[in-house]
Amino acid sequence: MQNNKRPLEGEIALVTGSAGNGIGRATALTLAHQGADIIVNTRQSIDAAQEVVEQIIEMGRKAIVCKADITSESDVKKMIQQAESRLGAPSIAVIGPGGKWTPAALTDIQIDHWEKNINNEISPILLLAKELLPEMRSRQHGNIIVIGGYDADNWQVAPEEGPYDYALGKSGRHWLVKTLGRKEASNGISINAIAPGPVHRIPNDLIINILSKSIDPPMESMYPSQIDVAQTIAWICSQKHVTASVINMPGPNPGSVT
């Protein structure tokens, strides 16, 4: 008898920043296509998030919108409580949104921008881990995936090519993934980072068609697309033995992060 069960069937995935035009939305749709029910998180784009929910429901999966600023402790707590009451405790969390790309010489960086960028990169991991890890530990099962930056740990670019605070934030994400991943491995929890460089954007209206027909994204660029990143995330979520790892996805110009 043929087994038609999808790899992520039975999983509940929280995908942060999944109402936009990039990796978050593609990831929410890809994980749903693989069988997961989805918590679509957005900071303010409720209408766009609802569109993603409707697409997921059309796939035969469950989905809800949870509005939250993932740098706010109170917002994160409320989001997880709402998700648990409406859909269930997340067994997968994808942490995407971070700092802004604003290249500047070190002497020109404004301290408020520096602090905000570092906070936006690091705090979501702390806040979501605090809320999600106890339940994941009790189940001895869970996947946390963070969007990092290609080669951020060894960046050697001029300040006019890339911002210090952005790269430092991505490197901090990688350190947290490696540290927490080793610590939580014995609890059945995998914690990894996907680290793309420049990403080629495929229009949102093509994503469902590409997923449903299992066709490769159009090769209009040498860079990976947001679907390539999302499918890598889906693979990470379907296995149990890779953890504390940073999976790099360079384009044709390694060392460049945008």
What can you see in these coordinates?
With 258 residues, the protein is α/β, with parallel strands linked by helices. It has seven helices and seven strands. The protein has helices at 23-33, 46-58, 73-86, 111-139, 164-184, 204-212, 226-237; strands at 12-15, 37-42, 63-67, 92-95, 142-147, 189-196, 246-249. A seven-stranded parallel beta sheet has the order 3-2-1-4-5-6-7, with helices on both faces. The chain is globular. The termini are far apart.
Write a concise keyword list for the protein shown above.
single chain; 258 residues; 7-stranded parallel sheet; 42% helix; alpha/beta
The span between the termini is 47 Å
Secondary-structure-based class equals alpha/beta
| CATH top-level class | Alpha Beta
- Give the low-confidence spans: 254-258
**Within the CATH hierarchy, at the fold level, what is the topology?**
Rossmann fold
Query: How would you spell out the order of helices and strands?
Result: EHEHEHEHEHEHHE
Specify the CATH architecture. 3-Layer(aba) Sandwich
Shape: globular
Q: What about the largest sheet?
A: 7 strands, parallel
The figure for the number of domains is 1
**Major sheet: arrangement of strands:** 3-2-1-4-5-6-7
Kindly estimate the percentage of residues that lie in beta strands according to DSSP: 5-15%
